Amino acid sequence: MSDNNLASVETERRATPTEKSAPTQLTAELAMQMFALDQHVIMTIADAEGVILYANERFCEATGYTSQELIGENHRILNSGIHPPEFFADLWNTVKAGKVWHGTLCNRRKDGGHQWSESTIVPVVGSDGKPYQYVAVRTDITRLKETEAALRASNAKLHELNRRLGEAQNQLLQSEKLASLGQLAAGVAHEINNPVGYINSNLGTLDNYLKDLFRVLEAYQAAEAGMDAETLKALAKAKAGMDIEFLREDMGDLCRESREGVTRVTQIVQDLKNFSRVDDVEWQWADLHDGLESTLNIANNELKHAAELVKDFGPLPEIQCRMTRLNQVFLNLLINAAQAMDKPGTITVRTGVEPEWVWVEVEDTGRGIPVDDIGNIFDPFFTTKTVGQGTGLGLSLSHGIVADHGGRIEVDSKPGKGTRFRVWLPVAQQELQSIG
Ligand SMILES: Nc1ncnc2c1ncn2[C@@H]1O[C@H](COP(=O)(O)OP(=O)(O)O)[C@@H](O)[C@H]1O
Ligand SMILES: [Mg+2]
Predict the structure, then answer these.
(1) Predicted confidence (pLDDT) per residue in 333-348, tens digit
(2) Terminal Cα distance for the chain, rounded
(3) Domain residue limits at 266
(4) Which residues lie with the beta carbon below 6 Å from any ligand 1 atom?
């Protein structure tokens, strides 16, 4: 506090110079010091009520006002609205108590902009011990504040980028995991194929053998009339508790059911192979319906709880494509459709052909896409879903895959009614004419 008192005393001394020695020289020195100070700092003098009595040129430059505009006005005209009332209460309490106040102040410039300064306000205390003037000396730190804000903004941007990087890394790990899962599935499918193959063929043979056996049994039954009593008795004993008619029927049913089961296993294995084939990223001529059927089977679990599935397939020519990649596109569209269902509805998968082009459409009766979102849905990481449900990468990856085929994805959505995605693909790849 001694500093503060000193400041007050000194100012008082300047206000009423009593020294006898070289007063003119002192005045000249003081004027010179004042001039130097004026060149560097922003300075105002206000009366006890805060009415501006003096504003130096630098203050005028910093705030955009002329000194005529300022003098006679209360300091309040510079209030930026940034500081809370307690801030000014503290300032006034300090200076009215005859103490020096230090702080960072934000003024509003004439053009509405902000002007920041490190400020020191010194009360000039009269002989009654009360301040009758306040001298405010400031250093402009607006540029510093602006740089600080820019730094904060770019720091926030960096944080956001870092977060995205983390997500991308996660996604990469995820797709690596998927790729190795795909490899595993392809391996398992290959291993299962073999035994399932011979079970299937054995069941066919068994069915034929049984038919033969029953034919022979029928012949024996027909011959029963001519058999002697002892043979018939032995036969009756062997057949006791046995219903041959039931056996004949049930064995047929058992064989049929088992073969149906095996056919289903074969289908699942085929779907797994079609879907996860890691080796067929090569271009090939393929029927999109095969890929769609496999994908629908894979997605079936997710779809059947959400909606009724309608297939409306038109005739399709084979097209030159990377089938596995396109399956991923169809899967993304199907899962999105299922996730858009707030209440039971339908998901329709349509296909069709135009000269040189084929299209595949997935239409749902779900919640639709808000107009404001439509422009963003293909952006990486754009998602309206919760963590775990969505990554926001499905459509951006799909867009990339379709573009890689020289195709395009169209979207038509009515909020509250549903959404239709249509994937257009060229039949032949111009640059791959040699393939096939
Ligand atoms: N069929 C659809 N119905 C409604 N909104 C959809 C549909 N498909 C995509 N969207 C919107 O597009 C966003 C991005 O989709 P996508 O890239 O697949 O990422 P994710 O499904 O992981 O959110 C979704 O979060 C959703 O808001
Ligand atoms: Mg998705």
Answers:
(1) 999 999 999 999 999 9
(2) 93
(3) 181-278
(4) 332, 336-337, 340, 364, 366-369, 373, 377, 382-385, 390-396, 419
